[in-house]
């Protein structure tokens, strides 16, 4: 059973925000994570976390083929007693724009992939915006990213395919309509 590299795409249907943890001063309270050329990407560890969360949901639903042993083998396990994480067999690459699209856009025009939106909290009693609750967030427009999972066996493909179908949104503010997506292996 030779290890394979499974390529997949993430198609975004709405604006999305994978946060960098940084702000842009007065322009935005939170900005999207970008590569050295200014293009958006999603870190592999974020993607791995989404697949792990989906796997745990499948465990709770007691779906055949999903066990703690399989989870440990694929994704690794954190030992709370020792504080050590044992690695799993899977490696998740960062999800990036296809190289042809990056070339066509050019790094001097990458800013056109982003816009800023605003959110505020509304007081349920008065229906008025709460003081100091206005937040601005940089979001990326809907687009398609590419990534791969390495270290898979043929027997892992069906599990990963089921998990990919289960992930329907990613990033911040998913409960407010951002980050709607589909993942296709």
Q: Mind explaining what this structure looks like?
A:
24% of the residues lie in helices and 26% in strands. It contains 4 helices and 10 strands; from the N terminus they run ββααββββαβββαβ. A 4-stranded antiparallel sheet has the order 5-9-1-10. It has a two-stranded antiparallel sheet with strand order 2-6. Strands 3-4 form a two-stranded antiparallel sheet. A hairpin with a 4-residue loop joins strand 3 and strand 4.
The proportion of residues in beta strands is 25-35%
Distance, first to last CA: 19 Å
State the secondary-structure class. alpha+beta
Question: Mind summarizing the main beta sheet?
Answer: 4 strands, antiparallel
The largest beta-sheet arranges its strands as: 5-9-1-10
The low-pLDDT segments are none
Helix content: 10-25%
Q: Cα-atom Rg, whole angstroms?
A: 19 Å
Q: Order of helices and strands, N to C?
A: EEHHEEEEHEEEHE
Shape: globular
Number of strands: 10
Q: Would you tell me the overall average pLDDT?
A: 88
Work out the helix count: 4
């Amino acid at each position: 059973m030779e290890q394979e590299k499974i390529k997949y795409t993430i198609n975004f249907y709405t604006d999305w925000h994978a946060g960098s943890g940084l702000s842009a001063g007065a322009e935005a309270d939170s900005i999207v994570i970008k590569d050295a050329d200014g293009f958006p990407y999603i870190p592999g560890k974020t993607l791995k976390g989404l697949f792990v969360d989906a796997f745990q949901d499948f465990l709770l639903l007691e779906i055949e083929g999903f066990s703690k042993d399989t989870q440990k083998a694929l994704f690794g396990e954190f030992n709370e007693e020792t504080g050590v994480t044992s690695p799993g067999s899977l490696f998740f690459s960062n999800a990036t724009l296809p190289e042809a699209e990056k070339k066509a856009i050019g790094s001097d025009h990458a800013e056109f992939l982003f816009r800023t939106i605003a959110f505020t909290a509304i007081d349920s009693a008065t229906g008025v915006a709460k003081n100091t609750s206005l937040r601005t967030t940089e979001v990326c427009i809907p687009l398609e990213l590419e990534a791969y999972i390495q270290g898979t066996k043929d027997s892992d493909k069906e599990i990963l395919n089921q998990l990919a179908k289960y992930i329907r949104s990613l990033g911040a503010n998913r409960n407010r309509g951002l980050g709607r997506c589909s993942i296709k292996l």
